[in-house]
Amino acid sequence: MEGIGLLSLAIWVPIFVGILILITGGDENSEGQRTLGLLGAVIGFAITIPLWTGFNTGTAAMQFEELARWVPLFKINYHLGVDGISMPFILLNSFTTILVVLAGWEVIKERVGQYMAAFLIQSGLINGVFASLDGLQFYVFFEAMLIPLYLIIGMWGGPNRVYAAIKFFLYTLLGSLLMLVSLLYLFFQSGGSFEILVWHKVPLAMSAQILLFIAFFFAFAVKVPMWPVHTWLPDAHVEAPTGGSVVLAAITLKVGAYGFLRFALPIAPDASHHLAGLMIALSLIAVVYIGLVALVQADMKKLIAYSSIAHMGFVTLGIFIFSRLGMEGGLVQMISHGFVAAAMFLCVGVMYDRVHSRQIADYGGVANTMPKFAAFFMLFAMANAGLPGTSGFVGEFLVILGTVKANFWWAFLAASTLIFGAAYTLWMYKRVVFGAVGNERVEAMQDINGREFIVLTLLAVGVLGIGLYPLPLTQVMHASVDNLLVQMSHSKLAP
Q1: Separation CA 238–CA 326 (nearest Å)
Q2: Which residues of the chain have a pLDDT value below 50?
Q3: Prediction pTM value
Q4: Interatomic CA distance for residues 313 and 414, integer angstroms
Q5: Among 25, 200, 212, 485, which is most buried by a count of CB atoms within 10 Å?
Q6: What is the pLDDT of residue 3?
């Protein structure tokens, strides 16, 4: 399967279709643009399926590699490849693109083509982030993926969309400028190479490793986002359209945690061990403190946004306890959160399309008028709270198991998310869905239509599939995680 260009197709087909939509005319051709957008998203996902079916789980080596000279003068290559850590995220991203296209099918009335094109182009750029094996190529995709989401928030968002978009863009851009300096430093330290896998083997002094780790931290912690650089996320979620919130939670946050696994840990293993206590502390603050913040939210999207920060705290905790259970748990949690957060935001979007309010107090008794929707919403709420049998439980359980072996009290604090998560999620669900019909607007709500039913069913299959049988997913990760842990166990200190 190697060398046939699957990764290039996964990157450039969505981008090409997005550009094609942009040149097909204005809103007078909106129906054709929607159809072309869905076709591009489905083809983009179909291209990624052979990455899963043809993946060799017995090796940690990069697979489906593609290598070509890009800028020979500066030794910059077009180099693509995936392993058990990166490959699942390309599938998740391409799958999510189908959902956001369907979610905006009837809701988006103006600039339909630009909306569809923005999501398709972003899908291709994000695939480029996960597939890049050249450092500067990674940086180009990493920065470029900000632009479509900035436009999505700024053009189709809520009343404060411009403020939220600019805040999102500045936070993520400023953090990544330090990473660019680090990439250039590594280029010279490696004898003139931008190859990420070469950087993994370059010996570095402890002071250099710490500085590199700090630079990577500012680039990737903002993306996760970790406390205290998380404040852009609730604003972005509240103002973003439903599709923007879905991509932001399901995919964009994962790029930050992936960056730690691909860059910070293998390039600066000694610094990673040295600063692990700080990373664990920040992760536990996110789990406990942000969980408490979520409890007092009156806006459903803001509550789910804070919930995402708490769940991503679990991910960084799993990564920095340096165990197989922890890392695989963190990876499973990322994939699970992609399904669960997407589903929660889509559920809020379904209600918002009917009532035009995200305030919990404006609802009540939704189950009386939307019983099918209430059943889906219950499943996703339980998954968000970490109910056994759903994907939300698997990753958290693995991380807690790994953390218990490292430190009981860390695990104790981490496990509090099961209590806080159940509290804020079920409290929201109870007030929105149960009880008597809250008002005339709720009484007039129509149950989900066929399009919404398909979208929520696809997400329910993912949530239950991972929750009941996570083995296929964890098998893909084993060799790559073990290889990373071996790299972490050997010092790279320069003599």
Answers
A1: 31
A2: 1-3
A3: 0.90
A4: 9
A5: 212
A6: 44
d(CA 173, CA 51): 31
Question: Residue 277 CA to chain centroid, in angstroms?
Answer: 24
pLDDT by residue (tens digit) across 213-271?
998 898 888 888 888 877 777 777 777 788 888 888 888 888 888 988 988 899 888 88
Tokens of 4: 């046939």
- What SS3 class is residue 398? helix
Q: Rounded to 5 degrees, what angle do the CA atoms 124, 128, 134 make?
A: 160
Helix (H) or strand (E) holding 483: helix 471-489
The pLDDT, as a whole number, for residue 492 is 66
Instruction: Give the contacts of 20 (CB within 8 A, at least 6 positions apart).
Output: 36, 40
Q: What is the pLDDT of residues 367-399, one digit of tens each?
A: 888 889 999 999 999 998 888 989 988 988 888
Query: How distant, in Å, are the alpha carbons of 153, 245, 324, 397, 421 from that of 359?
Result: 20, 16, 41, 32, 19
Burial 269-294 (b: 16+ CB within 10 A, else e): bbbbbebbeebbebbbebbbbbbebb
pLDDT of residue 2: 42
Measured CA to CA, the distance from residue 74 to residue 201 in angstroms comes to: 20
**Separation between Cα atoms, residue 488 and residue 303, nearest integer Å:** 36
For residue 241, what pLDDT is reported? 82
Strand, coil or helix: 79: strand
Give the separation between CA 212 and CA 456, rounded to whole angstroms: 42
Angle at 330 between CA 274 and CA 399, to 5 degrees: 85
The continuous run of DSSP H or E covering 76 comes out as: strand 76-82
Per-residue pLDDT, 489: 76
Q: What is the pLDDT of residue 27?
A: 62
Give the single-character DSSP code of 229.
S
Burial class from Cβ neighbours inside 10 Å (0-12, 13-18, 19+) for residue 233 reads buried
Task: Report how far residue 175's alpha carbon sits from residue 230's, in angstroms, rounded to the nearest whole number.
Answer: 12
Q: How many residues belong to the chain?
A: 495
What are the backbone angles phi and psi of residue 493, rounded to the nearest 5°?
-65, 130
CB atoms within 10 A of CB 404: 17
d(CA 219, CA 180): 9
Taking a C-beta distance cutoff of 8 angstroms, is the pair 463, 342 a contact?
A: no
First to last CA, the chain: 41
- Please tell me the distance from the alpha carbon of residue 150 to that of residue 260, in angstroms, as a whole number: 23
Contact of 242 with 345, CB cutoff 8 Å? yes
Task: Give the Cβ contact number of residue 141 at 10 Å.
Answer: 19
